[in-house]
Write a structure and sequence with these properties.
Blueprint lengths: L2 H12 L21 E5 L2 E4 L4 E4 L14 H10 L11 H13 L5 E5 L2 H16 L3 E5 L31 H4 L2 E4 L4 H10 L4 E6 L15 H12 L2 E5 L11 H6 L5 E5 L9 E5 L1 H4 L18 H16 L2 H23 L5 E5 L2 E5 L8 H4 L4 H13 L2 E2 L8 E2 L6 H19 L1
Helix pairs in contact: 2-10, 3-10, 6-7, 11-14, 13-14
The structure holds pyridoxal-5'-phosphate (PLP).
The site of pyridoxal-5'-phosphate has 16 residues, from helix 4.
GO molecular function: glutamate-1-semialdehyde 2,1-aminomutase activity
Catalytic activity: (S)-4-amino-5-oxopentanoate = 5-aminolevulinate
Family: Belongs to the class-III pyridoxal-phosphate-dependent aminotransferase family. HemL subfamily.
Length: 428
Amino acid sequence: MTTSENLFARAQELIPGGVNSPVRAFRAVGGAPIFMQSAAGAWLTDVDGNKYVDFINSWGPMILGHAPAVVLDAVREALPHSLSYGAPTRREVELAELLIEMVPSLEKVRLVNSGTEATMSAIRVARGYTGRDKILKFEGCYHGHGDSFLIAAGSGALTLGAPDSPGVTEGVAKDTLTVPYNDVPALKAAIAANPEQIATIIIEPVVGNMGLVEPAPGFLAELRALCTQHGIILLFDEVMTGFRLAPGGAQQLYGVTPDMTTLGKIIGGGLPVGAYGGRADIMNQVAPAGKVYQAGTLSGNPLATAAGMAQLRYLHEHPEVYTQLEATSAHLADGTRQIAKDLGLNYTVNRVGSMFSLFFTSEPVNNLEDAKKADLPAFGRYFHAMLKRGIYLAPSQFEALFVSTSITDELVEKYLGACRESLLEAHG
Ligand code: PLP
């Protein structure tokens, strides 16, 4: 038994499913998860000493690779000053200034401890501001595990939500409307069927959580116009895309400015952080400025803000990071597409900036229904074949890969070599 297997056996006795977040359990691809020991640059090392090139990067935050000196130094510098005060600090102000400078939609911002907290808080504020109860989300978009977001797609655009998880009440679910991503007619129909009832429309402007799905040309602009027309707060959930697709996130890349934005992951450089913000008149509703309550003992934590500031400042001062990520990711994604084609598979590869997915289907993937056409058993075999060759991918077809600046040309070649062999093995 390997050390990983041993730890997983122990973990299953102690922790539900043996993991502290479900996707880590490898349920979608079979097998047992690998327990990690350390990481540096592009490489993860597991508890048995095996090494893997990392294409998850903690699900996004490690955009500069693992343990970058600039972030570690900032944390080291902050460490002797203690770990938490429960009182305001200078760095919270500086981080707010930087976030507001970089992200077009932010006029005011509040720090929290996770992406989930950010989205839960943001919809409360939107509801408080508009005095409306309903929210609308898109099928296949993930916004954390808040009750309001765990709602099944339902049978059509106008169907009221049904809970996706036991423990989410019908009462909560009925206030969440869902429509397919990239579907303007369905969106218009849902708005028309719920006049002056929708507080906010929340969207991943580029979806990472059904695999990588890009907004159709003009979709975000149309969404913006509809929200303005109907007094609905447009909320971009940029927990994955923020500071990754561009210094100002997807909203900068596509030139569409939402009313509110949620952030996470990258802004903590690997430590637990989230943030939500937007127009000042909306954010002024948040306590203690306004009546919408939201709080957090560890919010603005000194180590998390140190790590986040260091990483964001680096991104701010080194725009060449995005040029490098674009070139590396294009090389990876184009190479993957070509290999699939050479093997007669014609699989779909979607990419925006440093996020991409290989879908095990030859049809275009523009929404959740399309993504579900993928050959999941073949993906599972591919995943394990890649892992065996030292390539660490997300253990699900419905996740994107995240590229870091630590991926060199040599590692791109390693990935592409493994990709060819693994696709063959998966279809052998
Ligand atoms: N929103 C999006 C778009 C996400 O991808 C995630 C997590 O992956 C979340 C929200 C929730 O963030 P967290 O896991 O930090 O609670």
